[in-house]
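[recover] target loaded
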């Protein structure tokens, strides 16, 4: 399928809060992916508390998404290839290994 869908931006605090809660629920379901450099990275719920849609939990989810998108933009700007995390220093923000470890990065995905 292809096409366009026009969605109005949320206006007001309650509409923004509802959008963040929707984002949190989407991540809980494992349904959000960032696609770039010919690969797909899943975005996980950092809070790992199903059903928690508090302001703090929603902010954590948004920050996680911003970090993943920022990583992908940085990787593209640096000219990293698709296998950059599999052959050399890891730059993935969700990786649980020590920063910039060598070798395959499977923990960050």
């Amino acid at each position: 399928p292809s096409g366009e869908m026009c969605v109005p931006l949320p206006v007001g605090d309650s509409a923004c809060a509802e959008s963040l809660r929707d984002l949190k629920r989407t991540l809980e379901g494992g349904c959000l992916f960032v696609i770039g450099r010919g690969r797909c990275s899943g975005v996980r719920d950092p809070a790992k508390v199903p059903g928690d849609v508090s302001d703090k939990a929603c902010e954590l989810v948004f920050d996680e998404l911003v970090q993943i998108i920022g990583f992908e933009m940085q990787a593209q700007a640096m000219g990293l290839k698709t296998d950059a995390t599999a052959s050399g220093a890891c730059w993935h923000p969700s990786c649980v290994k020590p920063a910039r470890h060598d070798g395959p990065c499977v923990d960050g995905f």
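[recover] notes: Residues 55-78 form the longest helix (24 residues).
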